[in-house]
Amino acid sequence: MSILIRNITAVNADGIQQNTDIYIEKDRIAEIAAGISQTAERVIDGTGLVAFPGFLDLHCHLRDPGLTYKEDIRSGTRAAAAGGYTAVCCMPNTKPVIDCAEVIRYVLRQAEEAGYAEVLPVAAITRGMGGNELTDFPALLRAGAAAFSDDGLPVAKDEVILAAMRQAKGCRALLMLHEEDLKNRGQGIVHDGQNAKKARLAGIPRAIEEDMTARDIAFAEQVGIPIHICHVSTAGSVQLVRDAKKRGVRVTCETGPHYYSITDAEILDGNPNAKVNPPLREETDREAVCRGLADGTIDAIATDHAPHSEEEKAMGIAKAPFGMIGFETAFPLTVTHLFESGIIGLTDIARLLSKRPHEILGRNGGELKKNTAADIVICDMNEKFVYNKDSVVSKARNSPFLGMELKGRVCYTIRKGNFTYDRQAD
Ligand SMILES: [Zn+2]
């Protein structure tokens, strides 16, 4: 198929081309220039719209295999495409855990069949995510693992994370670390602050995240490997990463849209969809996360898309599982809370949602460039809409953003020259 996108603003991390055309032939971008005279099977008028390189999510939960009542690879990647994603990293806390080649092959096969987005499986660091015995990194890399994580759980034991880092160094594997001092978290379910007290809910102090982050940065420095810190949520964590980068530690990190869009005020009415781990923090943390995104301390925006069933979230904030869906709101929340307020610009959106995620994984892509894969998301930066339940593509509905008015909308997602999302058709 051939596609011609006319008169669009094409945005890369390193610059903007205004009033340009993009010509796609089969799975490649054949040309980006003004006034392309090719005919195409499909022509899109890009007037007033913006094209970014397809988004890559470093962190999501597709719940497949084994937990498909929450989400599956087809429904999850379809939701990802609706959010502008052309590739997603899925975390291994499935049933069974992604800790062997067979499960990786299953995930890759399901993703291929669905065709909505490339799925990059993140394999477990320890067998069954048990925190003790390391998985076989080289064998998992050969099977297609994109990185390694026990996400959902920390690798608690010092000797185990050190052994994991040494193994990672030997085979150039990337560790993505969920930083949480679980043994000191106790019964905490929301951020430990004034709002937790008002709501009479047990708190999770910032130190639960920061102590582990500091430990792993120190170990990575000692072993001499790159590490990636998942879902940074506190001002202290942002500062730890900023300081480490300054002294040359190869640490990268991500945050989620919920950490720069809302605060722990959301828990006051007991909304179970505002229960997430790490928890929503205070305004000072939110501001620090915004600064970290603007100055490059935080490398990437990752959704931590964590679908749960209505029954699970109906158990109430105290008992419901942690997590919220995120594919379909990541871009509008970024426009509403970062772009509209002038914290970041258009090129930063391309950097945070596409270019840096590709670089962190050591992959080519994340650029709108002649002769590269036609992975493109076309967006309207100005359209306002109310995010409502009926519009959700994911199998799950657990979002604290339901009912909110947001600005910025994905219109089309194109992956390898095929439309994986077309809002007009949907
Ligand atoms: Zn996590």
CATH class of the largest domain: Alpha Beta
Q: What percent strand?
A: 15-25%
Categorize the overall geometry.
Answer: globular
Summed over residues and divided by their number, the pLDDT gives a mean of: 97
> What is the CATH fold-level name of the largest domain?
TIM Barrel
Terminal CA distance: 20 Å
In angstroms, what is the radius of gyration? 21 Å
The chain-level structural class is alpha/beta
CATH architecture of the largest domain: Alpha-Beta Barrel
What oligomeric arrangement do these chains adopt?
A: single chain
Tally of domains: 2
Main beta sheet strand tally, sense and closure: 8 strands, mixed
Topology of this protein?
Elements: E1 2-12, E2 15-25, E3 28-33, E4 42-45, E5 50-53, E6 55-60, H1 73-82, E7 85-90, H2 101-114, E8 118-123, H3 137-143, E9 147-148, H4 158-171, E10 175-177, H5 182-185, E11 190-191, H6 194-199, E12 203-204, H7 207-223, E13 227-229, H8 235-246, E14 251-255, H9 257-261, H10 283-295, E15 300-301, H11 310-313, H12 330-339, H13 346-360, E16 376-386, E17 405-415, E18 418-422
Parallel strand pairs: 1-4, 1-5, 6-7, 7-8, 8-9, 10-13, 11-12, 13-14, 14-15
Antiparallel strand pairs: 1-2, 2-3, 5-16, 16-17, 17-18
Helix pairs in contact: 1-2, 2-3, 4-7, 7-8, 8-10
The chain binds zinc ion.
